[in-house]
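User: For a benchmark we're assembling, each entry needs the component sequences followed by a predicted structure for the full assembly. Here are entry 17's components. Please fill in the structure.
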Amino acid sequence: MSEFYLDILILLDSTLRLATPLVLAALAGLYAERSGIVDIGLEGKMLGSAFAAAAAAAVTGSAWLGLLTGIGASVVLALLHGWVSIHQRGNQIVSGTAINITVAGLAPTLANHWFHLNGQTPLLDGPARFQVITWPWVETIGAVPVIGPLYAEVISGHSAITYLALFTVPLAAWVLYRTRFGLRLRAAGENPEAVDTAGISVYALRYKAMIINGVLCGIAGASLSTALGAAFVRDMSAGKGFLALAAMIFGNWKPVPTLMACLLFGFVDALQGRLQGVDLPLIGEIPFQFTIMLPYIFTVVILAGFVGRIQAPRASGIPYEKE
Amino acid sequence: MAAEHSIAPLPGWAAATLLPLLNLLAAFAVSGLVIWAIGESPLDALKFMIYGAFGYGEAVGYTLYYATNFIFTGLAVSLAFKCGLFNIGGEGQAMMGGLGLAVVAIGLDGLPAILLVPLSILGAALFGAAWAAIPAWLQAKRGSHIVITTIMFNFIAASLVSWMLVGVLKAPGSQSPESPDFPEAAWLPKMHELLAGIGLEVGSSPLNLSFLIALGCAALAWFFIERTRWGYEIRVVGGNPGAARFGGISVSRSFVLAMLVAGGMAGLLGLNELMGLQHRLIANFTMGYGFVGIAVAFMGRSHPFGIVLAAILFGALYQGGAELAFEMPAISRDMIIMVQGFVILFAGALEHLFRPQLTWLFGRLRAIGGTGV
Amino acid sequence: MPPALDVDGASMDSPDAGTSASAFAIEAIGLEKSFGPVRANAGVNLALRAGSVHAIIGENGAGKSTLMNMLYGLYRPDAGEIRVFGETRHFGSPHDAHEAGIGMVHQHFMLVEDFTLLENAMLGFEGGALLAPQKIAATARLKELAAQYGLDVPMDTKVGDLPVGLQQRVEILKTLFRGAEILILDEPTGVLMPQESEQLFQIIDALREQGKTILFISHKLPEIMRIADNVTVMRQGRAVAERVVADTSEAELAELIVGGKVAREAARSGAASPTEILRLESVSLAKKKDAKETLSDISFSLHQGEILGIAGVAGNGQSELLEVITGMRRPTTGRIIFEGEVVADANRYADARELRALGLGHVAEDRLRNGAVAVMSAEDNAILGYHGSARYARKGILDRAAIKSDCAALIRDNDVRPPLPGLAFGKFSGGNQQKIVIGRELLHSPRLLIVGQPTRGVDIGAVTRIHDQLITMRNEGRAVLVVSSDLDELMAIADRILVICEGRIVGEVAAEEANERNLGLMMAGRRLEDVADGPGAGNGC
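Assistant: Structure for entry 17:
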């Protein structure tokens, strides 16, 4: 029993860790889409930030400086996408794809140029990497039955970015539903004309949304290379940007349900790691390729099955033109 | 009069040629900046690339070999686009096409080439088509956004194929995820072998019969869209779904039809990569060709002839880039991926970046011409 | 400069015009606006007495919307001046109009459907960075306004879930919340049921009593008589007359609207044949089972050598009727019989292409929305709907030569300009677009032509040509069904006119007995018996 309980706790612990970049990137997508900009470039921005963060951390020895650099790189890309979508009225899908591909090539190129490690950055350790934070009195509380291990295994022992990610969810909900900015942002994604006739600049709102999008993607990317991992590796975002997009849709463009979707995807990921090579009774060994595709299948089923109940912001993806 | 000139629209030929050219130049200029930043000469790089892509027979063979992939995926994007659908699932459709091809080629081992090759091609097209038809159907009947579903289908296809490659399709004794070799009857002949057969000596390259098949597909795609009733219906649906109902055209049927054809085209990617070169199914053989198809379709203005030209351009970029990486150690293949990204950005998303300037320029030219006369 | 209110010899009614600027909420002086070669507003003068309801009436295309959009800051006038409460204003955006105290309720509401009334009202007028502290005051203010003007709206429902009538109240409340003293209502009853309209009028009465000024755009005479104090008539971009409503009549206004023009001389010759070509039997249409019907129990028949007109206020089921007859939508119940053959009932449903093959042509009421593909060439558009016929396609392959020669004939016979078959449809002018879509059907000599809004957005020259074409069809013993919002057009070309209201046929008049009054009253849902000054059949609304 207690071993099973511990298994579950370890699983939950990995879930939180694996969900961290997803939560941040999904919220990034959420801000963009709520303002009316479709963003399939989450992947590229995460990758760009992962590289910039790892490179800066390697050079300066500070994970926090790395994080700032990563955020900077990601914001630049987000503003590029914003400019294409807002002022140039370009195709947002193509722009997102272009950013994904460009970064996939640019990041290892620069890595190679600077570090000569075949497209990677040097291994980070010590303060150059986000270390896990052990909560106070883990020893003491950990000894308490049932709650103790939960505290020690699941709640304690994550990097600062994970706690930050969990904090951004209620923050996003608060911003969207409780502030003037959120009200306007949501309106811009639903009916930009109503925003315009109320005397508010739709363009400015969308640029602000893209800056937030860039910051969040930047943190997500930095978490890949300086918290979960310890260096930048080619293609290390490995589809997480698309997974985050799926989580955002799964969460119906709302912060808390999006968090739930990310946790579910993170759990599936943790589970497949845990079950690898394990022969389950009756089922046998579950191939990890199956568990990998589960989130994508969930998303398709959600899109196909919940018509009407799942509603993208009405104006997302449509460039706004003043009359 | 001057005012009238300044608002005159850009001539069609200029929009079709000068704009893409300017976009391309802009993409190269930005790429050149990166090359310069890492301490290499952009001009030398350009020289190496052009020579590497077109400088000698073998190079041309490689360029056309890569172009073949882009013709297939470019057509896959543009055929869907004609129906107003954004197909970014070329990657997954190509993957499934490869699976279909492998299943037929390995499953029907023993058949003579004359049967096995067409059947394998059919298998590739059918699997690719089916994989594209599901998102199309979901879009038509359930309103599921095809951009998202095709992205999801890319990942599902990749997982599915890699699962097959470690399971039922696994080559005995191999450690990597790959299928056993196809029977030789399912191999497509290389062009240099074919040409040698008629007495022409050309450099050896992986360029194979698929290139001619791809050209044939481009011609067929043009005929299908411009000269058949179904192509006409697809264009009407893409242009104005309201008019489709008015003309008695089923929107859902056109969606599914367009995506079937598009998916079939993407599915044929395996002809070049697998039947032409690898002779077995390997994981990730699609290498992002499906995504580059988006740029090819945009640059080619969704016209099959334009797509062939754009595909050759991207083929040259690939081949020239590989040579460049060989000549300039500071530059890796990654750099070429970046250049592609910039081309997609400028030629696709920023299509109209230079339109105001060019329009102004033409207005000025006309004004000067007008006063001169 | 006092406003020049003397227009077309009609003397201004108010003796104190111009003497006291503040007596007017809005004064527009010589407003000009052109779009390309079209002069949408040609020196329009308008003066709105503060605290009154001022109506603007005119036909489609008379320039009403352009004028509104200038007063609301969406368009900038090419010339002229706008004064609000005596002060000259230059509006760069709707926001400037807001600041001047002008609010507008658009025909298409500017509402965020996902928001509640409170959120919609607060948007842009939040009063602070956080919503919560302001919400209490805003809610109280909205409740107060609602009580003051009788604008009862549920506060906590998303406006997208409210019926249209309530959404309109949300719009009015929103503009009041934002401090509007002058409200522009653009065709506000166009989307309302008659009883809802009456409720709206009560709200307008309340607004006027409390000192608000209302500019009311409409093309319906009875409601102007009901609600307005003054009325300005617009025709061809000009304000051609102004009247005090109490001193005028529907008849006088009707004449002013059309410019006293005599009815066109219809070249109709010969009576309709008794042979029936189309019959509808109890046709109904509902979006879903048990949902409200957009068409209920429609029955009528049409004979060879006849033009049948359908009149009604926009949105009363005309579009649906067109779609049902032409195979774009399947009726929920009932039967449609074309030349003795059942083409739609529970067992059979012929789609648009099949009906065309049988000889039933269709000219869509909105050519750009569903009658053509703007990005495709004229040549490609020339076969839409006929593209599957043996004439153009064999075994699925298009016969380009046949298409080319037919398109050339179409261009020649209909005088399409410029005569370029390769030009994209969207690049032709409205009139030439209409020539193409009508010519496309005529090319195949349909025995029945269904036409929606035959001359909408078409220049005067082309109007006559189109009417002649329809009348020629009729005289040749074929048949035409015309749906039009232009009563003059119907009276000029139709043999009989059916009036549709809320999805039902409420009456029928022969062309000779039709006039603005009896048609207009029936369109508002009144029974023919109440209306008739002569005999006629009526089955009531």
